[in-house]
Amino acid sequence: MAYKLGIRTIQLAGYDVYYEPANQQTHDRFIEGMKLCAQLAERSGVMLAVEIMDTDYLNSLSKFEVLNREINSPFFSAYPDVGNISGWNYDIVTELKLSKPHITQIHLKDTYKVTPNYQGQFRDLVIGEGEVNFTAIFNTLRDTECYVPLVIEMWANDDNWRENIIFAQHRLNEACRQAQLPWLFELKPDTCLKAIFR
Q1: Is the confidence at residue 170, as pLDDT, over 50?
Q2: Per the database record, which ranges form the Xylose isomerase-like TIM barrel domain (predicted)?
Q3: Neighbour count for residue 6 (Cβ, 10 Å)
Q4: C-alpha span between 130 and 157 (Å, rounded)
Q5: How many CA atoms lie within 13 A of 22 on its CB side?
Q6: What distance in Å separates the CA atoms of residue 18 and residue 1, rounded to the nearest whole number?
Q7: Cα(198)–Cα(185) distance, rounded to whole angstroms?
């Protein structure tokens, strides 16, 4: 179906299970399913991109590289969520450099990190309010010449969603400026000021 529709990349969730406990059997089924999906993708020339998730099953590109060797397909790639990687206390620069040849697309999301006394926060944050170092991310993408689509991931849980998007765009533009990259978004000065001083 993806081939017929002209869809070139399919995003997959990097979970074996989510709502029930994981075990060796759920892991084995995940591997079996990914291998089958990769074979189907190869036949159609469609890239599979597995997202680096917010649970410890597949929360880093280091773990993706282990999985990638097991799946062993040129049509199986990584879709890192930088918020999830950072939130689990992995060094985002090292991780991006490690998997650069296998990255198809990137989620830009902000998070709070997991600590011994805190489970972290992996959603419902506006970009710029969390702990993700977007300047370091953009520096790494520039230095490694990693040119892939970037997607903002945020949630609209209140009436300020429009201002939140503008605020996030401004913060990402500022990170681009610090990394000596062109802005990602064209913003009107008056909307930026409203978002910054909200």
Answers
A1: yes
A2: 1-165
A3: 7
A4: 17
A5: 13
A6: 26
A7: 19
Stated length of the chain: 198
The answer to whether residues 62 and 85 touch, using CB atoms and an 8 Å cutoff, is no
Q: Which of 77, 25, 33 is nearest to 52 (CA)?
A: 77
Spatial separation of the C-alpha atoms in residues 58 and 192, rounded to whole Å: 36
Identify whether the C-beta of residue 11 lies closer than 8 Å to the C-beta of residue 41.
Answer: no
Measured CA to CA, the distance from residue 170 to residue 183 in angstroms comes to: 9
| Tokens standing for residue 15 | 């979970």
- What pLDDT does residue 190 have? 57
Beta-bridge partners for 11: 49
Structure tokens given for 5: 């529709």
Amino acid type, 18:
Y
The reported pLDDT for the residue numbered 157 is 84
Domains and CATH numbers, the chain: 2-196 (3.20.20.150)
Tokens at residue 82, please?
Answer: 């930088």
- Partnered with residue 112 across adjacent β-strands are 121
* Residue in this structure with the two tokens 């170092």, named with its chain if needed: 133
Under 8 Å CB-to-CB from 22, ≥6 apart: which residues?
A: 16, 57
Reply yes or no on whether the pLDDT at 196 is more than 60.
no
Q: With 0-12 CB in 10 A as exposed, 13-18 as middle and 19+ as buried, what is 159?
A: exposed
